[in-house]
Amino acid sequence: MTTNQIEVGRLRLTVLTSKLIRIEYITSGMFENGTTQIVQHRDFEVPPYTVLHDHATHVLEVITTGFHLYYDGGDPQAGNLYIDAAHNYGTYDSRWYCGTPVGKNLGGTVRTLDKVDGTVELPAGLMSKNGISVLDDSASARLLDDALLPRQNQELDLYYFAYGRDYRATLQAYYQLTGYPPLIPRYALGNWWSRYYPYRQNEYLALMHRFDDARVPIAVAVLDMDWHRTEIPARYGSGWTGYSWNAEYFPNPGKLLQQLHDQGRHVTLNVHPAAGIRPHEQCYLAVAAALKLTDDQPALFNLQNAAFKHAYFKLVHHPLEAQGVDFWWLDWQQGRSQGSQGIDPLWLLNVAHYEDNAQEHHGQGLILSRYAGPGSHRYPVGFSGDTIASWASLQFQPYFTATATNIGYTWWSHDIGGHMHGTYDGELALRWLQLGVFSPILRLHSSRNPFMSKEPWRYAAEYATPMIKFLQLRHQLLPYLATANVQTHVAGQALIEPMYYGHPDADWAYRVPHEYQFGPAMIVAAATTPRDATTQLTTVPVWLPAGEWYDWSTGLRYHGDRYFTAYRDLNQYPVFVAAGSIVPLNPDYMQPVMTLPTTLHLKIFVGATGHYQLIETSGTRQATTDFWWDDADYHLTVTVTDPHQLLPSNRQYTCELVGATSAAPVWQAGRASFDDLVLNDVAAQNRAQLQQRLQFAKLPFDLKQTIWHAYQAAADESSWLAYVTTLKDSAVQGMLTELVVR
């Protein structure tokens, strides 16, 4: 076929790929050929397909290698259009009838988690165990550049996906259709400090200095709404919206922003734009003149009004950006419809602010705002709202974050530690922070309650010390995170994926909602429950796919293809790295994040041959460094491709072997040889870990000694395990068994 469109009466079908078809039906007017809120590209390569007219009892049939569509005429919503997928994951599950939901959907994401304490039901995403899904674009507006306009004609507008359980291919097709996520600026991958609190200028700078003194890297400084005047004349309404600096709190804002920039930080301000621009604002006279307002008329918020939109950016936001504001936190909470056209103001805000910011920053735009629906991945990053500080909220968050990838939304930013309510709980704060390290964005946040702030030194040392260690780790991981950022943008390979993406036919992959893939090398099994009172360890259920794996914190090696319970102390987080992986780290974690590291520390996980490509960017320039680990000859090869001389000319590499020990490698012509490599003594590792676990467990000393003697006297693993089963406490049994059955 030379075209990919078939029209029969009021029905139009567009075969985009052998597994993706567009279905349109209109009652009057013309079909929609333009771009919409969701869909940006339909110029796919035309696949082979067959069309049958008036065949058997059907008006139309369309056949590809991926599906067979049947149409019997009339309104397809009446059930006279259905599609059989070319795969079958159940007796009846391969057939979809137009207008019916797809079964076994794996979920998508929601607009906000505001005031949620625990779980919330997620709407359908693109992935289902049935292997099919439907994206409904019928209600979305047209999107022309950064203008959202209602459709001229109402129509049924559906996209049917039939990629089976190839979830990554489904996501890539979705991105090809809707646009790939843009690169987010490198600084956004670092630690964010945020708090809803009326800081004073000197107080805020002193806090940043204290972070530096404590060796806690902060890349993004967030000022919540108290940066602007909140006490305003009652005749102007609420002080929630504001654009004028509070001179009492910030007497010299330009100097503040310059000092933060000099420290290598970027700055965002919180805005609630719903009330528009009112007469008490410093920018009001300029806005009133531009909009021809008189008698102290407020400039009502309306981004569909071209004059207001122009003034809103040029006269209100751009002057603040000239002072040093890098991007905006858009805190829209006022509903989903505005004006006669009924277009969601959140969509208008996200599109307009992101595009404006990208223009100001040479294509590297950024906002912080709530999710507005499918297509929102083009306007990162997402603000998930004001969550409750509870274990229930923490337990939901790993699943929520990973499942959002099912609708292409890969850059969620959560209130790490919870925004409000809850009780003082150092362990909860620590476990949430550790999850934040292995999240898309790490933004510490809390309310203005004086006892709720998230600085590590507000907690006892047993929590504060690992908090600082893990905040440092986040910045060490920046090379790994920045590479994942590029892969998301270029290849649609999300940083965070549910386990079933890589293992779609493994039953266990669907049964570990707290577990997810974190980049190409890591699996994170989130710790989301308090530690056991006796063992002093957190228990985490873990499923590892086939292969060999290492625990990031302890270096212990695990055999895959099994489900088990992991036990971890406060200094450890259950992250597992595949043998053969190479993870690049920046050892200078206090370095400004926009500076590429001079030294890279490479963690090499022995036990398999592996390859990793590091991607580094600056503006439009890009450099790659390929690392190959040869596990047969124990050598590392490094190949740099840097056509724009982007990388530091004096870059050096240090290496750390996981699973083995060696003297410093011998480097020659981009190759590091580990000639004296010795694999770790697994028995010695087990013994050390067991002794440590017994040391800190709250057990009688006599019982600890009895257990230790039994371990030393055991002839083999079987006899030791037989002894462990005689212990009464199941948690104690588990922490001892994990060290043997790995």
TrEMBL record:
The reply to whether Hydrolase figures as a keyword in the UniProt entry is yes
Query: In the UniProt record, does the keyword Nucleotide-binding occur?
Result: no
Going by the UniProt record, its keywords in alphabetical order are: Glycosidase, Hydrolase
Q: Which Gene3D superfamilies match?
A: Glycosidases (3.20.20.80), Golgi alpha-mannosidase II (2.60.40.1180)
What region holds the Glycoside hydrolase family 31 TIM barrel domain? 181-483
The Glycosyl hydrolase family 31 C-terminal domain, residue ranges: 492-583
Name the SUPFAM superfamilies on file. (Trans)glycosidases, Glycosyl hydrolase domain
Q: Which GO terms describe its molecular function?
A: alpha-glucosidase activity
What's any GO biological process attached to this entry?
A: N-glycan processing
User: Taxonomically, which superkingdom?
Assistant: Bacteria
Question: Which PANTHER family does the record match to this protein?
Answer: ALPHA-GLUCOSIDASE (PTHR22762), ALPHA-XYLOSIDASE (PTHR22762:SF89)
Task: Give the family per the record.
Answer: Belongs to the glycosyl hydrolase 31 family.
Name of the protein described by the UniProt record: Alpha-glucosidase
